[in-house]
Amino acid sequence: MDTHTYDLIVIGAGPGGYVAAIRGAQLGLKTACIEKEPALGGTCLRVGCIPSKALLESSERYAEAKHALGKHGVNVSGVSLDLKTMLERKDGVVKALTKGIEGLLKKNNVTRYFGHGRFTGPNTVQVSGKDEVLLQGKHIIVATGSKVAPLRGVEMDGDRIGGSTEALSYSEVPKHLVVIGAGVIGLELGSVWARLGSKVTVLEYMNRILPGMDGDLVAEAHRILKKQGLDFRLGVKVAGAKVQGDGCVVTVEGAEPISCDRVLLAVGRIPNTDNLGLDAAGVKTDQRGRIEVDDHFSTGVGGVYAIGDVIKGPMLAHKAEEEGIACVERIVTGYGHVNYDAVPGIVYTHPEVATVGKTEEQLKEAGVAYKTGKFPFAANGRARAMNETDGFVKILADASTDRLLGVHIIGPRAGDLIAEAAVAIEFSASAEDLARSFHAHPTLAECVKEAALGTAGRTIHL
Ligand code: FAD
Ligand code: NAD
């Protein structure tokens, strides 16, 4: 077997891995990236962020044409669904973007190896698959991502009972879809199929949806999504799910079994360290199977690092990317840092839910004195013009210093609006900084300004 030597080897070409590889090459490291799947881009591009957003976009247009355009005086008739074309468009978007990553690696002189990577020692990785080769690296970054968490009693068959990957490609619209877990995946993909005509029942173990998000935001999201037809059953314990004939049956403790034609299991994701040879490298995992790292992504084994979904922290593509960059920059320049207080999180439902910084519950628990500013989209000119008046912007600022602590938005384009809040928190801005900055009129962003004014009791348009 051939042996090749590199300054940097990255295992996994998801948003964490391929970005780390490109940055390493930019900084002059001779770099290799190992990926076991034919297409690059990881969960995010192949079966995560991108295909789910493609379907959210298409299904929203379908729902809008069916139910919302009439309010604008646009009458359309004969609206019908061509699911095959919708799925093919989604696949086309994924194909173009994953091909794009291939081009980016080439352009940056990163050598791609196609196969499964496994440590055979702290500095060596064996690649098995289309490429069969032994790689030696001065620095090795593990970026192997995550996979669907199983649930005891739920018998996944990769078709009728599956995870998010299956739910991105159902060949027909389920009559009744049961979603287990009211987290991000459950709400996004539940919304897609509900818009396309499924009856969607969401079973959630907790007494609320979207655990961890600001309570106010969650209450509003729950209200709006319920109105859109999602049937939430909160505080329920799923005992099992299995295929029965042409459909499935989901059993729930203390309630009648639910018959449906498909089940989407979305109770979280777990780190992916399958057959990675971590023992051979001496790399340790914690009780949840995540690779243990210090603040600089070092595993404690000289030259071996880990980033992204395979370590602690929110499982988000942009978090993985920033960790990849910080990890490589620290290797080369001695400095690299990720500010976990400024990581935005977005749920791409309609309307979108977006958040950055601390929630009100976290501030209460930490005993931090804070002030609140809140502004509804119903009082915003642009939102009214768009006929998108659900939701609000909520800003939490330190009661004595005025420093921004958290920004929580539910409403139209919340995922784009949160960007200015993330930058403001990154720059340690005050609520007054936001309130005194120009926000063009008429834009949705004026709601952010008004909520910032609200922290000082100075809201103008309410
Ligand atoms: P991954 O993207 O999982 O990439 C890891 C790669 O490593 C994979 O390609 C895998 O094949 C490869 N690999 C694993 N083991 C080996 C091995 N031994 N050898 C070689 N290759 C290996 N996040 C967002 O920020 N926004 C979103 O809108 C969003 N939507 C999502 C929707 C869905 C349905 C899902 C499932 C996830 C979504 N996420 C979203 C989460 C996001 O996809 C992940 O946080 C992100 O992909 C993590 O990046 P990563 O590089 O750590 O791992
Ligand atoms: P999640 O952690 O967001 O939600 C899981 C939900 O399942 C929670 O509400 C939890 O209380 C519930 N749950 C857990 N055990 C249960 C049980 N036994 N019965 C019923 N409910 C149960 O996980 P997810 O939705 O699977 O998403 C996985 C990861 O992917 C998340 O970390 C998320 O960050 C990431 N993701 C992000 C986006 C985005 O950024 N827009 C989109 C999709 C996925």
Please describe what this structure looks like:
This protein has helices at residues 15-26, 42-47, 49-68, 83-107, 164-167, 184-195, 215-227, 278-281, 317-333, 360-366, 381-386, 414-426, 431-436, 446-454; strands spanning 3-11, 31-35, 111-114, 116-121, 124-128, 133-142, 146-148, 161-162, 176-180, 199-204, 231-234, 238-244, 247-252, 258-260, 262-265, 269-271, 304-306, 345-347, 352-357, 370-376, 392-398, 404-411. With 462 residues, it is α/β, with parallel strands linked by helices. It folds into three domains: 3-148 and 271-338, FAD/NAD(P)-binding domain, CATH 3.50.50.60; 161-267, FAD/NAD(P)-binding domain (3-Layer(bba) Sandwich); 342-454, FAD/NAD-linked reductase, C-terminal dimerisation domain (Enolase-like, domain 1), CATH 3.30.390. Helix 1 (15-26) packs parallel to helix 9, helix 3 (49-68) runs antiparallel to helix 4 (83-107) and helix 3 packs across helix 6 (184-195). The termini are far apart. The mean pLDDT is 98. The chain binds flavin-adenine dinucleotide (FAD) and nicotinamide-adenine-dinucleotide. Nicotinamide-adenine-dinucleotide binds at residues 151, 180-186, 188, 203-206, 211, 238, 266-269, 314-316, 345-348.
